[in-house]
TrEMBL record, chain A:
Signal sequence coordinates: none
rRNA processing recorded as keyword: no
GO biological process, one term: regulation of DNA-templated transcription
The YEATS domain, residue ranges: 43-187
Protein name, per record: YEATS domain-containing protein
Transmembrane segments: none
GO cellular component: nucleus
Subcellular localization(s) per the UniProt record: Nucleus
Lineage: Eukaryota, Viridiplantae, Streptophyta, Embryophyta, Tracheophyta
UniProtKB/TrEMBL annotation, chain B:
Disordered as annotated region, ranges: 1-36, 419-441
Listed CDD domains: SANT_DMAP1_like
Source organism: Linum tenue
Protein location: Nucleus
Segments of skewed composition (Basic residues): 431-441
Coiled coil: none
UniProt GO BP: chromatin remodeling; DNA repair; negative regulation of transcription by RNA polymerase II
Gene Ontology, cellular component aspect: NuA4 histone acetyltransferase complex; Swr1 complex
Protein's name in the database: Myb-like domain-containing protein
Keyword field contains Ribonucleoprotein: no
Record field: compositional bias (Basic and acidic residues): 18-36
Higher taxonomy: Eukaryota, Viridiplantae, Streptophyta, Embryophyta, Tracheophyta
Ranges for domain Myb-like: 126-175
Length: 271, 441
């Protein structure tokens, strides 16, 4: 589903959101609901649209040009996780800055949904996403702590290397409207799970030249974006689960052994 | 700042700028007048709800026109039946002693016990199991002891249970009430007429109370567990019903099947003693997950991280705070972030499953501890069957067990890289029984 071919990104792992994986996990979590789905058929309740996004900030130290009140130039933004255009989903983004800024409520109505400013302080920014009316009527708020200085205090500030803090999250629309679904079928920024039988399946192969190229691809900050790969975490989690399961099996064996011993020792016990 | 610049030192991050949102300041309250600072500090800096003594009252002096003397005078108590005269100190104002009865006489209240005449007895109150003499004795005692049935039952000459005595007394009173009433409507409001004393119900109630009181801790725990699970099942059924009603009615036949499973697991839980904790809760957890999922589906939009939080909360709802902390500690030992860095649907699902498995693991560990504790107490020939029972068990077993248990658990996870299970788990397991034997000696 995601086949972005941005020249600037050096990606090895594609964030994988393949259909079969989703489905098998869904069945693990919600057995009775799957049964419902088969009967229900065409209802849109069974389709869940998730839009992976990344939000955060990039901050550059101004070096010689820095003064007491403006030591950094920073940009706070919301982007699609794969750098694709999210304007089909998000209508506008409102960034609520610290009250010491002029006009602390900044509205960005077109992509790229970002805001640049100069300042010296770190504070929490409230990012409110407003969606198109057929997507969702209610806005959703995210909170991001603006970070200007590097974690490690001993690192010297450099003009060239910015401080980047990004958070990955996914917007989940449990009951999308038909128009939204139609609009977003082939969209690379959006992941739509396996559709039930009633829907016409989209053509799997996508013509890259037809897809709209957005500014984000040529954005100067793109080089600093973090590549969020779920593969690593999945591997880690799978390994951890394996360990835990082995331990559980061992404990269960121990318990049965002890129970056996106790049975022999005292037949008249309360057991 | 300039000095640091010159020296080339890094500037300290001004992470607490004065213009940052100010935290709510805890303003130190002024101490009120009249109370010394130290005394006020004793209350924790808060004013007491009600002033104990009004400070102005302390400073008041008695009006100077009154002359107060204290005299040793006799007094009588109207509550007494005899004419005993006692003496006490009296505050005399201007040579006039205070009037009025002894101040404590008003507390001499007594209960009105109905009295019946012999005629009334013959007409309304005869009872096959009670003789007139017994009934008279009962009423005497009732009057003497103000209807304190515990004492009356003790003093009653022939042996009768308290319920029987109460029953007799209340039915006699009721019959008299009805007999003396001019019309039934007058007395229908009286509590005795409305709700008569029910001896068998009282017996049952007292028996149930004493049973609850004498329950052992283990029984209490089990009862609480069963009740909690029953509640969860009921709630999940309600949630399921709520969701159901918004979906087409054709799907209703799907759900009852799954709920029937839950019934079975509940029954089997109560029948089987110390059943493996993992199995039944997992089926119940699936039911609860669907209610959380249902509530999430109601939202027009939500964040994946929010959904994960909700699911984690629901999964840990049956666990105490300490257990939750231990789960988090285990996650950290395994090298897993408490909040996944890339929370996709797949990652969140795996994360949730991992947490649930860790909970299962911790429960099993606890179970194993109990079992081993029981084993050791049995070996010593004692009849204690619960781990938290004797203080002796407490002292050495937790020390040997919890310390050994935790360290070897951590050791197994930290030894080799991810994905490879080390061989060492077997040795710590052997160490455990050996440790116990050493401390047995």
């Amino acid at each position: 589903m995601t086949n972005s071919s941005s020249p600037k990104r050096n990606e090895q792992d594609q964030p994988e959101t393949s259909g079969p994986v989703l489905k098998s996990l869904k069945t693990k979590l919600s057995k009775p609901e799957d049964a419902e789905k088969k009967i229900v058929g065409k209802k849109l309740k069974d389709v869940e649209i998730s839009v992976p996004i990344v939000y955060g900030n990039i901050a550059f130290w101004l070096g010689k040009k820095a003064n007491e009140y403006q030591s950094h130039k920073w940009t706070v933004y919301v982007r699609g996780a794969t750098n694709e255009d999210t304007s089909g989903v998000i209508k506008k983004v409102v960034f609520q800055l610290h009250s010491s800024f002029n006009n602390p409520t900044r509205v960005v109505e077109s992509p790229p949904f970002e805001l640049s400013e100069q300042g010296w302080g770190e504070f929490e920014i409230a990012i409110t996403l407003h969606f198109h009316s057929d997507v969702c009527e209610k806005p959703l708020s995210l909170y991001h702590q603006l970070k200007l200085y590097p974690e490690d205090e001993s690192t010297s500030l450099s003009i060239k290397k910015p401080v980047v803090v990004e958070s990955y999250d996914e917007l989940v629309f449990p009951e999308p409207s038909e128009s939204f679904l139609a609009r977003v079928q082939n969209h690379p920024a959006v992941s739509v799970p396996r559709l039930p039988v009633g829907f016409t399946l989209p053509t799997p192969a996508e013509d890259p030249s037809e897809r709209k190229r957005v500014d984000t691809k040529d954005h100067p900050l793109t080089q600093w974006f973090t590549n969020f790969s779920e593969a690593d975490e999945l591997l880690q989690l799978a390994a951890a689960r394996q360990q835990v399961q082995t331990h559980i099996a061992k404990l269960r064996r121990q318990i049965t052994v002890i129970e056996g011993q106790q049975q022999q020792l005292k037949p008249s016990s309360d057991q | 700042m300039d000095a640091k610049d010159i020296l080339g030192l890094p500037k300290t991050p001004l992470s607490v700028p004065p213009e940052k949102k100010s935290q709510p300041k805890k303003d130190s309250q002024r101490k009120p007048d009249g109370i010394s600072r130290e005394v006020y500090a004793l209350t924790g800096g808060l004013a007491p709800l009600m002033p104990s003594i009004d400070s102005s009252y302390l400073k008041k002096r008695p009006p100077s026109d009154e002359k107060i003397t204290w005299q040793w005078l006799p007094f009588t108590n109207s509550a007494r039946k005899d004419t005993l005269q006692l003496y006490h100190w009296v505050r005399v104002v201007n040579g006039v002693p205070p009037t009025g009865d002894y101040s404590f006489a008003k507390y001499n209240k007594s209960i009105e016990v109905t009295k019946y005449t012999d005629e009334e007895y013959a007409k309304h109150l005869t009872d096959p199991s009670w003789t007139k003499q017994e009934t008279d004795q009962l009423f005497d005692l009732c009057e003497q002891f103000d209807l304190r049935f515990v004492i009356i039952a003790d003093r009653f000459p022939s042996s009768r249970t308290m319920e029987e005595l109460k029953d007799r007394y209340y039915s006699v009173c009721r019959s008299i009430l009805l007999a003396r009433a001019s019309s039934p409507a007058d007395v229908s409001g009286h509590p005795l007429v409305k709700e008569n004393y029910n001896a068998s119900q009282e017996k049952e109630r007292k028996r149930a109370l004493s049973m609850v009181l004498s329950q052992t801790k283990q029984q209490e725990k089990k009862d609480a567990e069963v009740l909690a699970e029953a509640k969860k099942i009921a709630e999940s059924r309600m949630a399921a019903k709520g969701v159901e009603e918004s979906v087409m009615p054709a799907t209703e036949n799907e759900f009852p099947e799954t709920t029937i499973d839950h019934n079975d697991t509940l029954v089997s839980l109560s029948n089987v003693r110390l059943a493996p904790v993992a199995a039944p809760p997992s089926t119940l957890v699936i039911a609860d997950t669907s209610s959380t999922l249902a509530s999430l589906r109601m939202l027009p939009v939500y964040l994946r991280t929010y959904a994960l939080e909700q699911m984690v909360q629901q999964a840990s709802s049956s666990a105490g705070l300490r257990t939750i902390k231990r789960v988090e500690q285990t996650l950290q030992d395994l090298g897993i972030n408490l909040k996944p860095r890339v929370p996709t649907k797949a990652v969140c699902a795996e994360h949730l499953e991992l947490r649930k498995e860790i909970l299962t693991l911790l429960n099993l560990q606890k179970q194993l501890q109990y079992k081993e504790a029981e084993g050791s107490s049995l070996r010593e020939g004692t009849t204690y069957s619960e781990m938290p029972g004797t203080p002796k068990d407490r002292t050495f077993i937790p020390d040997a067990m919890s310390f050994g248990g935790n360290t070897c658990l951590c050791a197994t996870f930290l030894v080799k890289g991810p994905g490879r299970v080390s061989e060492t788990p077997s040795s710590p397991a052997n160490k455990r029984p050996r440790k116990m034997k050493a401390s047995d000696l």
